[in-house]
């Protein structure tokens, strides 16, 4: 079963999926964050099993461990991690949060 949150990371410089990127999904709770799930991207740069099948509405944070990914490849990076905060709304069954990554830039969007 696909989880409520999925992601896909592409390494724009190497032109390949970014395999093995560490992921942490958290929910904003009061003055802090409550960890919901952790994982890694697969060989295709995807994670389809990050978190439960349903999430409560609220603001969530997805952190990509990009520094570890680039270090493992022997490449320097400006961003030790990429952090994306987004809202989960009532009645939405799926959120896809991809990133296009390079050592010195990244972009993201709400995928389908």
From TrEMBL:
Pfam family of the protein (one): Transthyretin
CDD domains xrefs: TLP_HIUase
Binding-site list for substrate: 8, 46, 109
InterPro entries, per database record: Hydroxyisourate_hydrolase (IPR014306), Transthyretin/HIU_hydrolase (IPR000895), Transthyretin/HIU_hydrolase_d (IPR023416), Transthyretin/HIU_hydrolase_sf (IPR036817)
Keyword tags: Hydrolase, Purine metabolism
GO BP terms in the entry: purine nucleobase metabolic process
EC number: 3.5.2.17
EC supergroup of this enzyme: hydrolase
Catalytic activity: 5-hydroxyisourate + H2O = 5-hydroxy-2-oxo-4-ureido-2,5-dihydro-1H-imidazole-5-carboxylate + H(+)
GO MF entries: hydroxyisourate hydrolase activity
UniProt domain Transthyretin/hydroxyisourate hydrolase: residue ranges: 1-111
Protein family: Belongs to the transthyretin family. 5-hydroxyisourate hydrolase subfamily.
Protein name (Swiss-Prot/TrEMBL): 5-hydroxyisourate hydrolase
Species this chain originates from: Georgenia ruanii
Gene: uraH
Oligomeric form and interacting partners: Homotetramer.
Functional summary from the UniProt entry: Catalyzes the hydrolysis of 5-hydroxyisourate (HIU) to 2-oxo-4-hydroxy-4-carboxy-5-ureidoimidazoline (OHCU).
């Amino acid at each position: 079963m696909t989880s409520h949150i999925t992601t896909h990371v592409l390494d724009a410089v190497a032109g390949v999926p970014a395999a093995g990127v560490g992921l942490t999904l958290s929910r904003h709770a009061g003055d802090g964050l409550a960890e919901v799930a952790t994982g890694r991207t697969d060989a295709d740069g995807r994670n389809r099993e990050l978190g439960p099948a349903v999430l409560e509405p609220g603001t969530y944070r997805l952190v990509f461990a990009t520094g570890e990914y680039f270090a493992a490849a022997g490449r320097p990076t400006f961003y030790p991690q990429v952090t994306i905060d987004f809202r989960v709304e009532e009645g939405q069954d799926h959120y896809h949060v991809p990133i296009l990554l390079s050592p010195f830039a990244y972009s993201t969007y709400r995928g389908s």
